[in-house]
Amino acid sequence: MLVRSEDAGGRFGLVEHPIAPRALAGPMHVHEHEDEYSYVLEGEVGFQVGDDVFTAGPGQLVAKPRGIWHGFWNAGDAPARVLEVISPGGFENYFAELAPLLKPERDIEGIARVQKKYGLQMDFSSIERLSREHGLGSPPGR
Questions:
Q1: Omega within 30 of 0 (cis) for the link into 65
Q2: To 5 degrees, how large is the angle CA 125–CA 24–CA 61?
Q3: d(C-alpha 93, C-alpha 35), whole Å
Q4: What Å distances lie between residue 89 and 6, 10, 82, 84, 93, CA to CA?
Q5: End-to-end CA distance of the chain
Q6: If we measure between CA atoms, which residue out of 69, 66, 87, 84 comes closest to residue 29?
Q7: What is the DSSP string of 93-111?
Q8: What span, in angstroms and rounded, lies between the C-alpha atoms of 42 and 55?
Q9: In the chain, how long is the greatest CA-to-CA distance?
Q10: pLDDT of residue 142
Q11: Is residue 28 helix, strand or coil?
């Protein structure tokens, strides 16, 4: 987290997402309360926003409005980095609350509680489709 909501008067949060090569960063999901803007710093990042599927490179900004299903992944064989502006702020705390629920085993009930708290719906069934369609999880040089 680069900027927490409480440090910006609640107006926004700023998070950096490093994404490993050919990794799914976020399966299809939708936010009830906030808009997200992804600024690609490094690499090639694939996005699906609604029905639109595209790749963005360094210097490109992608809007992911609240209420619109979206997902994103590293579309290349090199690391990628994305700056995520979240407006209004607060959702950046989701990542801090989620992290301990993922290890050592996933706490599915805890994850569901955190998602509900932040007005997030996640389509876990999209993981297989996105991975297959975009060659995710494949080693560099496939």
A1: no
A2: 115
A3: 15
A4: 8, 5, 17, 11, 9
A5: 32
A6: 69
A7: HHHHHHHHHHSSS--HHHH
A8: 12
A9: 46
A10: 44
A11: strand
Write down the pLDDT at residue 138.
Answer: 57
Structure tokens at 125: 């069934």
Place of tokens 């927490």: 4
> pTM for the complete prediction?
0.88
| Joined tokens for residue 109 | 């009930």
What proportions of the chain, in percent to the nearest 5, are helix, strand and coil?
A: 25, 40, 40
Domains of the chain: 5-133 (2.60.120.10)
- For residue 138, the Cα-to-chain-centroid distance in whole angstroms is 19
pLDDT score for 102: 83
Q: Which stretches within 22-141 are classed as H helix? A: 92-102, 108-117, 126-134
Structure tokens at 20: 């490993």
Residue 89, Cα to own-chain centre: how many angstroms? 15
Task: Express each pLDDT in 14-64 by its tens digit.
Answer: 999 999 999 999 999 999 999 999 999 999 999 999 999 999 999 999 999
Q: Which amino acid is at 63?
A: A
